[in-house]
Design goal:
Shape: globular
Oligomer: single chain
Number of helices: 7
Helix content: 25-40%
Distance between the termini: 38 Å
């Protein structure tokens, strides 16, 4: 099972079970959880520095929007990204590159591009970065993702979630409780004091609020992703 938390940055975790998997593709091997006397459960983790923070940057630094919630409407005012790619390597690139000398770029600008295209490219950047992390996880684990569970503030942006599903080629599932990190901490505390008795009991509480399925043709998806990868190379070794 794999989930991605969309906040200021993005943090994706893939449960790899009782055996820690050492990454060969730029991910971290981390402890997922340990409950009582049960064996520890491990995960692969991929960290993205800038996700929701890019929306905040458009609001606070450029004044393109007055509130974060306006980004979806502005992005939806155009049909595509207008050929531009926004790589927000403001403080370097995290997983899977780990290049602290990279810096942000907007590639592919023409006179055709307007504020809607910039907003859309900013949202798409989160989905592309997530795809890069997931590709690394698939390579490390040898397990192909069947669906991605999502949580955090950005999961209420329907345009982003649909594009995320399109870019991964798998369903994206938002649970009824979107703040899963806090919920998980509460569940762990409840198990520790005996308020709940088993993980099976907790699983019964989980439910789907919304699901997005891929709608973009595979050839189009891979063309967009290839162009994103090209844009990423423009950020390398800037310093």
């Amino acid at each position: 099972m794999t989930k991605n938390t969309y906040g200021t940055g993005c943090f994706m975790l893939m449960n790899t079970g009782l055996t820690p998997v050492q990454s060969k593709n730029g991910l971290l091997t981390t402890l997922a959880y340990k409950l009582g006397d049960a064996p520890a459960v491990y995960a692969l983790e991929g960290s993205i520095a800038i996700a929701g923070a890019l929306v905040q940057w458009l609001r606070d630094n450029l004044g393109l929007i007055s509130s974060s919630g306006e980004i979806e409407t502005l992005a939806a005012s155009v049909n595509d990204n207008g050929g531009i790619y926004f790589v927000p390597a403001f403080s370097g690139l995290y997983a899977p590159y780990w290049k602290d000398n990279a810096r942000g770029v907007i590639a592919g600008l023409t006179r055709y591009v307007n504020s809607g295209h910039i907003a859309r490219a900013a949202l798409e950047a989160t989905a592309y970065q997530t795809r890069e992390v997931l590709d690394a996880m698939n390579a490390d684990s040898g397990v192909r993702l069947k669906s991605l569970r999502v949580d955090g503030g950005m999961v209420f942006n329907g345009l982003l979630m649909q594009f995320q599903s399109d870019m991964l080629g798998v369903p994206v599932v938002r649970p009824k409780v979107a703040e899963t990190t806090a919920l998980g901490a509460a569940y762990a505390a409840g198990l520790a004091v005996g308020f709940w008795t088993s993980l099976k009991q907790l699983r019964e509480y989980w439910g789907v609020d919304m699901e997005w399925r891929p709608a973009l043709p595979r050839a189009r998806r891979e063309k967009l992703y290839a162009e994103w990868k090209k844009a990423v190379t423009r950020t390398f070794d800037w310093l």
